[in-house]
Amino acid sequence: MKVHAVFNRDGGTFRTMDMKVFAETAKQIFEQHGHTFESEIVAGKDIVKALKKVAAEAGEHVLMAGGGDGTISAAADVAWKTKVPLAVLPAGTMNLFARALKIPLELNAALESLAGGTVQAVDISTADEESFVHQFSIGFQPQMIKFRNTLEYRSRWGKRLASLRAFAKAVGNPPQFAVRMVIDGKTIERTVSAISIANNAYGQGMLPVPDVVDRGELGIYIAGRLTPAALMKLAFTVLTGSWRNNPDVDEITAKVVELHFPHLRRGAKATIDGELIPLPKDVKIVIHAGELQVLVPSDVQTK
């Protein structure tokens, strides 16, 4: 197997590492498993260009991406569109897609696991033309991330602290918005505080991560009109893993979701895999079952 890696030197763990030493370690591990390996170390601003260049190379190969969730989401988009298998190396804060793929979070363990891994087909979803491997969110999460982006942080723990500060600010004024949802052909009209649509339904753990990544169904999570107290309660149930018992949250699975926002505010935002994007008045979310090839540990069965 030929593996060509792109490492985001500005992403999470990599910021404080000697990347040349790490790249050499990765090369040694993959060569010990009988593979060929080469890598590029690039700045965050150049990551998409580097990913596209590697994916376009001739011959069969695996595109490895190392970085945070934003890097991995960008790499998944490139890999999906070019039909090149993707290897995910978790070097961010949450590493949500890596967790879903059961990839170890310690970097050397992840390298060993991937070097002995196999390629399997998993799902990827789109919101209009934007792909995602984790979730598309409207309402509270974009509001919190907008607040967090006004704060400075330089480390993984700094980002977590900034997120807590942003949550504390956002919880005092939960958003409320009208939406018409067409879910697998069934129309629902509601006023809500948050909608999250996941690339496969979340599992039973504390983190919003699916247990299965190739079921071929979106997980749709709708939080009704929330007061500050209700939002605090929801946050507590999320942290304790008991959110499915929260009466303010509805969970639905579907293959296609269409959203219409009749009173969309100017400058409204959504998040897609944690990154802020403009929110259109109409958006269609579709899951593309089995269309993304990924390298996973050999002991992982995606179904």
Protein described:
With 303 residues, the chain is α+β, with helices and mostly antiparallel strands. It folds into two domains: 2-116, Probable inorganic polyphosphate/atp-NAD kinase, domain 1 (Rossmann fold, 3-Layer(aba) Sandwich); 131-290, Tumour Suppressor Smad4, CATH 2.60.200.40. Helix content is 29%, strand content 34%. The chain has eight helices and 15 strands. It has a 15-stranded mixed beta sheet that branches. Helix 1 runs parallel beside helix 5 (107-115), helix 2 packs parallel to helix 3 and helix 6 crosses helix 7 (156-170). The longest helix is centred in the middle third of the chain and has 15 residues, at 156-170.
Low confidence ranges: none
Count the domains: 2
Number of strands: 15
The total of helices stands at 8
Largest sheet: 15 strands, mixed
* Content of β-strand: 25-35%
Please identify, by name, the CATH architecture of the largest domain: Sandwich
What structural class do helix, strand and pairing data support? alpha+beta
Shape: globular
User: What is the residue-mean pLDDT, rounded to a whole number?
Assistant: 92
What gap, in angstroms, lies between the N and C termini? 24 Å
Helix content: 25-40%
CATH class of the largest domain: Mainly Beta
Topology pattern, helix = H, strand = E: EHEHEHEHHEEEHHEEEHEEEEE
Keywords: Kinase, Transferase
Pfam family, one: YegS_C
GO cellular component, one term: cytosol
Domain DAGKc: 44-131
